[in-house]
Amino acid sequence: MERDSEKPAPKPKAGKLARPYERPRGGEARAVADLVPQIGRAAFRRYGFVQSSVVSRWPEIVGEAHARVCVPESIRFPPGEKADGIMQLLVQPAHAPLIQHVIPEIIERVNRFFGYKAVARVKMRQGTVKPDPAQRSAVAPPSLKPIPMELGDSLRDIGDPELRIVLESLARSLGKNEDG
Predict the structure, then answer these.
(1) Structure confidence at residue 6 (pLDDT)
(2) Are residues 155 and 119 in the same domain?
């Protein structure tokens, strides 16, 4: 008994082979920083984050001082909801009492960031908070080489400390080139 549904599929003709779809190549190069949110979105959602920017912009949301001692781990929402979630925070043990007192402010800032009442409660878990190397401000230590005498007095009058350090570094390198 042969059924109609068991007929073999027609074979492609020799001259017309079906080619799989190929994505067009080329185009403009994109920075990796532009691609990371798209790549990380699935992983962040898996662990409870609706927006990956909550993690990446945490110091802006809660401030530098609190960002050094606590980081968000996840936001869990009630089934079928995207509001009134529970945020899990990882907090350094010594700072847990302080963070406990500022939880209402953290909830307010996170909800302001989202634009709606995304977080209703915060649960804390004590553990080691690793500093994010991208958040550290890399300030080079001042050089111990002396500044040329003719430039030293004029650089002391500059009020902006960063500009003064850069100009002192430039003066040192100019002084080194004149000596050699």
Answers:
(1) 61
(2) no
Kindly state whether residues 49 and 110 are assigned to the same domain.
yes
Note whether 40 and 110 are same-domain residues.
yes
Report d(CA 80, CA 164) in Å as an integer: 56
pLDDT in tens, 11-23: 655 556 677 877 7
Owning domain of residue 167: 149-179
Bridge partners, residue 123, by sequence: 88
**E strand segments, the chain:** 70-76, 85-91, 119-126
Q: How many of the other CB atoms lie within 10 Å of CB of 26?
A: 5
Question: Quick check: pTM over 0.85?
Answer: no
Determine the Cα–Cα distance for residues 37 and 52; give it in Å rounded to an integer: 7
Domain count, the chain: 2
Residue 120 φ/ψ, nearest 5 degrees = -105, -30
